[in-house]
TrEMBL record:
It comes from Perilla frutescens var. hirtella. Component of the oligosaccharyltransferase (OST) complex. It holds the Pfam family DAD. Coiled coil: none annotated. This is Dolichyl-diphosphooligosaccharide--protein glycosyltransferase subunit DAD1. Subunit of the oligosaccharyl transferase (OST) complex that catalyzes the initial transfer of a defined glycan (Glc(3)Man(9)GlcNAc(2) in eukaryotes) from the lipid carrier dolichol-pyrophosphate to an asparagine residue within an Asn-X-Ser/Thr consensus motif in nascent polypeptide chains, the first step in protein N-glycosylation. N-glycosylation occurs cotranslationally and the complex associates with the Sec61 complex at the channel-forming translocon complex that mediates protein translocation across the endoplasmic reticulum (ER). All subunits are required for a maximal enzyme activity. InterPro entries: DAD/Ost2. It comes from the Eukaryota. Keywords: Apoptosis, Endoplasmic reticulum, Membrane, Transmembrane, Transmembrane helix. Belongs to the DAD/OST2 family.
Length: 116
């Protein structure tokens, strides 16, 4: 009895999440896909390291930190671009994107320096 109610609750939760996500603007959906791509790339690199090995360990760390750092910066961009967020209502989306690009440039310069 408890199992079927749990299943119904989970289905209702997923249905409400899906209906709420349908109303999300397309630019936020694109940023979400970019975040998922960056995290998926990091998972692939960790899987590759587990199978093949991590001989150039700095290269492995650089790749994973680059993916995770880019995903974190994209989450910050998503928060700033979201119109429902009241904290950043005065911030134009162009400024948020310029901050994202500049921070990505600094991140990747640090990553390139870490490679050696």
């Amino acid at each position: 009895m408890g199992r079927s109610s749990t299943t119904k609750d989970a289905q209702a939760l997923f249905q409400s999440l899906r209906s709420a996500y349908v109303a999300t603007p397309n630019n936020l959906k694109i940023i979400d896909l970019y975040i998922l791509f960056a995290l998926f790339t990091a998972v692939i690199q960790v899987g590759y390291m587990a199978v093949v090995g991590s001989f150039p360990f700095n290269s492995f760390l650089s790749g994973v930190l680059s993916c995770v750092g880019t995903a974190v910066l994209a989450v910050s961009l998503r928060i700033q671009v979201n119109k429902d967020n009241k904290e950043f209502k005065d911030l134009p989306p162009e400024r948020a994107f310029a901050d994202f690009v500049l921070c990505n440039l600094v991140l990747h310069l640090v990553i390139m320096n870490f490679l050696g």
